[in-house]
Amino acid sequence: MSRVLVIESSARQQGSVSRQLTEQFIARWKQAHPSDDVMVRDLAAQPVPHLDADLLGGWMKPADQQSEAEQAALARSNLLTEELLAADVLVLAAPMYNFGIPSTLKSWLDHVLRAGVTFKYTETGPQGLLSGKRAFVLTARGGIYAGGNLDQQEPYLRQALGFVGIHDVTFIHAEGLNMGAEFMEKGLAQAQAQLAQVA
User: Fold this and answer.
1) Does residue 149 have a known ligand-binding role?
2) Residue ranges per domain, the chain?
3) CA separation, residue 180 to residues 166, 172, 185 (Å)
4) What is the third-level CATH fold of 3-198?
5) Does the annotation flag 10 for ligand binding?
6) Which residues form the Flavodoxin-like fold domain (predicted)?
7) For 11-53, what is each residue's pLDDT tens digit?
8) Judging by DSSP bridges, how do beta strands 125-128 and 119-122 pair with one another?
């Protein structure tokens, strides 16, 4: 049995293409892997605060010197990190906002990319500690960006995931969603076909 951690980051609960893709992915995954445990964390319903002084204090100060706010921030980071550590498969649903990922997803990454926990520094540079995990990234984009220099999502997420040792990453892009009915239909169909193959 594998554990699948799904991270939703769309600000919309209704009409979200990335959420539609996530639902389809989960349904197909459960059909193919009925014994797997799937957990969904919705960053719109339960936002993760931006990295701040309380979180830094929680990470860096001895326990007996932490304020209540720092202890709470550390506990939140520990919870999110433990969910990631326990997962065998990570699914990130990431609509494109202003050429990048939603700020909620960036905040989640800021809580789980932790020195000594998900990566470590060595004499030869940083080393990821999460090797052996797989990741799928489901994106929804109004235009067509894959492979172009305006696509800041895929390179950033590949770097962030690779930094913690997750190198087996599959991207599924639903593109052209705001370019008219024909482009939207084609973009969704391509994403759904790819999703069916990998899930």
Assistant:
1) no
2) 3-198
3) 36, 20, 9
4) Rossmann fold (3.40.50)
5) yes
6) 3-197
7) 999 999 999 999 999 999 999 999 999 999 999 999 999 999 9
8) antiparallel
